[in-house]
């Protein structure tokens, strides 16, 4: 079974309006994998232009991979993918591109961490 993954897309440097792209991801790209693994799969196999952040790649060390999954803030590296997902950038941070936001003006705080919901 494919996973239907819909992702917010916008490059504010060259686009004026955001859009949502939907990808059908085969089981090898999502089943028993994290959201971060699925984003990597999409980037490697379906859309190399997709931008997202990762750093430590090991469950909840750096917090850089925060995204909104089905309207809840999660760590992409610590949340399992599902058969249907809406992935968006986290709120209240300046958008740089797609799922990448800037933390330079507003460092990640304990308040942000409190909004995490484990998948
Ligand atoms: S990549 Fe570091 S917490 Fe997810």
What does this structure look like?
- By secondary structure, the protein is of the alpha+beta class.
- It has a single domain, classed as Ubiquitin-like (UB roll) (Roll).
- Helix content is 13%, strand content 27%.
- It has helices at 35-46, 110-113, and strands at residues 3-9, 19-25, 66-69, 72-75, 84-88, 95-97, 100-101.
- The relative contact order is 0.22.
- The structure holds FE2/S2 (inorganic) cluster.
- Residues 54-57, 60-65, 75, 77 line the site of FE2/S2 (inorganic) cluster (FES).
Number of strands: 7
Regions with pLDDT < 50 over 5+ consecutive residues? 110-119
The molecules bound to the chains, other than polymers, are:
FE2/S2 (inorganic) cluster
**So how many helices?**
2
Give the rounded overall mean pLDDT.
88
Annotated CATH homologous superfamily: Beta-grasp domain
In what order do the strands lie side by side in the largest sheet? 2-1-5-3-4
What structural category arises from helix and sheet content? alpha+beta
Q: What portion of residues belong to β-strands?
A: 25-35%
CATH topology: Ubiquitin-like (UB roll)
Helix content: 10-25%
Order of helices and strands: EEHEEEEEH
Determine Rg (CA atoms, Å). Answer: 13 Å
Indicate the CATH architecture: Roll
CATH class: Alpha Beta
Q: Span from first to last CA?
A: 20 Å
Characterize the overall form: globular
The major β-sheet equals:
5 strands, mixed
What's the structural domain tally? Answer: 1
């Amino acid at each position: 079974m494919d996973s239907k993954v819909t992702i917010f897309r916008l490059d504010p440097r060259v686009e004026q309006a955001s859009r949502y792209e939907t990808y059908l991801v085969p089981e090898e790209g999502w089943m028993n994998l994290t959201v971060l693994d699925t984003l990597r799969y999409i980037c490697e196999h379906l859309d190399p232009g997709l931008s997202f952040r990762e750093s430590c790649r090991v469950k909840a060390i750096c917090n850089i991979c925060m995204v909104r999954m089905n309207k809840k803030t999660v760590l992409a590296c610590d949340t399992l993918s599902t058969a249907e997902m809406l992935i968006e950038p986290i709120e209240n941070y300046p958008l740089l591109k797609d799922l990448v936001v800037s933390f330079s003006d507003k460092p990640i705080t304990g308040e942000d961490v409190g909004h995490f919901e484990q998948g």
